[in-house]
Amino acid sequence: MATALMAEVDNQAEDLIKEASSFEILPAGSYEVTIRKAEVGEYGESSNNAGRKYLNLQLRVIDGAPVGAGRILFAMVPLFQRWAPTQKNPAGAVASDFFNFFLAVGATKEAVTTGKGLPLLEELGGTRLGIGVRVQDHFKNAGEKENSVNSYRAPKALEGVVEPGASAVGSAFAPKEGAESPWGNKGDKGGSGDSALQAAAEGSGKAF
């Protein structure tokens, strides 16, 4: 039993070392990735959107990519159509990442505007899409740089395509004025309450 446990720990450590060693800064540009992991999270109390839900994503640059193959990137996609109101924008800015991400993974325009017919949470794993990556100042470590995902698009037909410097910005579909949020999160006007992603989250003990 002890030998088997040690073997499992060793294998996990080796995988972690490989991931950690691949965290070099990637050139800004457009990359093809697959979704390695998708979980539902909640914005913390310090956020203007406290209590609202988001998708926490681990994305992996596809094998065979000329730059960054196997590199892991992290991203957060809001699970609502508008950010919370601010003094500058009382209506709340459009959460374009919500629309662009779900369109990129194959959802229809109707699905992203109504919240009905979105993919199940567990169906996102392994899905391929394109992303835009930028280089920015590190959030915590002064003087260091980090990558962040700033756009989503449908995947390209040609595997391994990377275009450093490309914007890869998808088309945002803004909600109609007064439209309800699909999930009825805090600060929204209501919600349909019957999206596929909501059902998946409830099934795993999490609720939007």
Strand content: 15-25%
Rounded average pLDDT: 75
Radius of gyration: 18 Å
Distance N to C terminus: 41 Å
InterPro entries: DUF669
Region (Disordered): 172-208
Pfam families: DUF669
Protein name: DUF669 domain-containing protein
Can you offer a commentary on this structure?
Residues 172-208 are annotated as: Disordered. This is DUF669 domain-containing protein. It holds the Pfam family DUF669. InterPro entries: DUF669. The protein is globular, with a radius of gyration of 18 Å. The N and C termini lie far apart (41 Å). The chain has one domain (23-203). Strands 1, 2, 3, 4, 5 and 6 form a 6-stranded antiparallel β-sheet that branches. The model is unreliable at 1-10, 158-196 and 198-208 (pLDDT under 50). It has helices spanning 2-21, 96-104, 109-114, 196-203, and strands spanning 29-42, 53-61, 72-78, 128-137, 145-153, 163-164. The longest helix has 20 residues, at 2-21. It has 208 residues and is an alpha+beta fold. Strand 4 and strand 5 (145-153) form a beta hairpin.
What's the layout of helices and strands?
Blueprint: H1 2-21, E1 29-42, E2 53-61, E3 72-78, H2 96-104, H3 109-114, E4 128-137, E5 145-153, E6 163-164, H4 196-203
Give descriptors for this structure.
single chain; 208 residues; 6 strands; disordered N terminus; disordered C terminus; DUF669; DUF669 domain-containing protein
